[in-house]
Amino acid sequence: MARSQEILGWDILPLLSDCRPRRLAIPTPQARPKHSRKMTTFTRIPEDETPSIIVDVSRRLSKIDPNIYGGFMEHMGRCIYGGIYDPENPLSDTHGYRTDVLSALRDLDIPVIRYPGGNFIATYHWQDGVGPRENRPSRPELAWLGTETNQFGTDEFMHWLGVLSEGKENRVEPYFCLNMGTGSLDEALAWVEYCNGTRNTYYANLRRKNGHEEPYNIKYWALGNEVWGPWQVEQMTAEDYSKKAFQWAKALKLLDPSLCLILCGETGHSSWDHKVLNFCIQYADMHSIHIYTSGKSHLSNVTAPLSAERAIETAAALIDIARIEKNIPPSVGKTKICFDEWNMWDPTRAPGEKGAEELYTLSDALGVAVWLNVFVRQSRWVGMANIAQSVNVISPLMTTKDGVVKQATWWPLLLFSRYMRGWTVGVHVSAGAYGGVTEPAWLQGVLEQGASWLDVSASVNEHGVISLVVVNINETTDFEVDLVSVGKEVEVYTITGKDVKAVNVEGEEQVGVKESKWDGQGKYKFAKHSMTLLRWSTRKKITEVVQGDGVRLNTRKLGWSA
Ligand code: AHR
């Protein structure tokens, strides 16, 4: 995919006829940031000038991996038990699965779900969770200090995924995380064999004996979770982890060369990331990073996800450094970033040991919209992203005994997953900006021109439909904006509430989506503290220039081949 598009992308694509500017001229190629790799460029203007947003459809930049709308389900709090699996509840089916949760998650069209942790994985032994339920042991659980009954395990998760996938063209993909805490390599190999084995071998036969004749074909496997963290059972140094991950990856690829292995990174901008990438790059199909953001004031809260943008850029540079230093042949596919835990979360407000049930405000919803703008803008690098988590635990979706509550953060996720697909399109924003304190503090220095009041991303899908997201982070000011290159029939989706503290609770929804139409004429007013998604058609289908997968490492020969 990426490389030919990088070379052939926006330079040679014709301008789409009905996207011509009507009020302002599209900057000439000379005036544009020349050969800019930036997805969105920004010029800070005085506060009393009229902001503008130029959508440059000729700058079709990189494919948005659908996996950026991934989910995450950990054995933590009420995510599994009481979230997706709740056998005593009248809303559950005969398998014990909450049908209201299934139907809500189907709306999100989640492509992939990470399981079963998270920190939980560091002491989890998968064999405790398969076979007849009455024989499964209850164990002390050391990440969240609970008891794991093992009534829900590998086979139940795969069955539940099958139910979730009903009616979909492609199944919701599983993404499993391996226990690199108290777990052994033998145990990891056995789990892969149990899930994917097709031969007459012990663990493949155990799966068959447990009633699952066909292999699960699980492609995505993570080499541990946050093993750098002091809270982790069997915390490791980068050196120790690198050596272990390298050997595990080799063995796992010998067992099943089709696996996509995800290396355990940290934040993307740490020396841990640098060290483990340099040691393991040839086995790292993806590099995982985790960031949770929050801020005490609305503006530090809503701008905090911009730190993740810098983290992605930094991790991408570290990947390039590792490839250069390890002489990885240019035709080897790029190691992508797997942002497999992201969200708004203040653990002092919603501690993990207490189930991490956050009550999300409109400010958080706008923060989630900025997070998703970041993933769309950085689609060149991001191969997967998983909101942490999908039900009850720091989640947009909460269960009560009587049904589900869609928190304020649900709505941006839904709109992005529904519409921000295809390719990232280049945008130039001219606006005023927030220049105050940030969370984390270093972000303020990185932003240079400040954080634009209007946080923007744009995409085009295969049918040539443009979707433009504009988050007005300003708490008090509406902005009338010159929009360049929009169509004449524009669908509008707006998320807002009475103020940035608005929340959704059982029986009262203060934050939701309003739908309207716009004729594309005149300026568009982006209301204070809102997210707006505008959609219009260019009436021109996209023809993609596709590149092959490149060469892969042949683990047996320790060489690269097609
Ligand atoms: O998602 C909650 C927890 O946050 C995960 O278990 C862990 O990986 C992270 O620290």
Automatic annotation (TrEMBL):
UniProt keyword terms in alphabetical order: Carbohydrate metabolism, Glycosidase, Hydrolase
SMART domains from the UniProt entry: Alpha-L-AF_C
GO MF term set: alpha-L-arabinofuranosidase activity
Enzyme class: hydrolase
All residue ranges annotated as the Alpha-L-arabinofuranosidase C-terminal domain in the record: 340-530
SUPFAM superfamilies given in the database record: (Trans)glycosidases, Glycosyl hydrolase domain
GO biological process: arabinan catabolic process; L-arabinose metabolic process
Record-linked Gene3D superfamilies: Glycosidases, Golgi alpha-mannosidase II
Pathway assignment: Glycan metabolism; L-arabinan degradation
Transmembrane domains' residue ranges: none
EC number(s) given by UniProt: 3.2.1.55
Reactions listed under catalytic activity: Hydrolysis of terminal non-reducing alpha-L-arabinofuranoside residues in alpha-L-arabinosides
Family: Belongs to the glycosyl hydrolase 51 family.
Role played: Alpha-L-arabinofuranosidase involved in the degradation of arabinoxylan, a major component of plant hemicellulose. Acts only on small linear 1,5-alpha-linked L-arabinofuranosyl oligosaccharides.
Descriptive protein name: non-reducing end alpha-L-arabinofuranosidase
Source species of the chain: Hyaloscypha bicolor E
Lineage: Eukaryota, Fungi, Dikarya, Ascomycota, Pezizomycotina
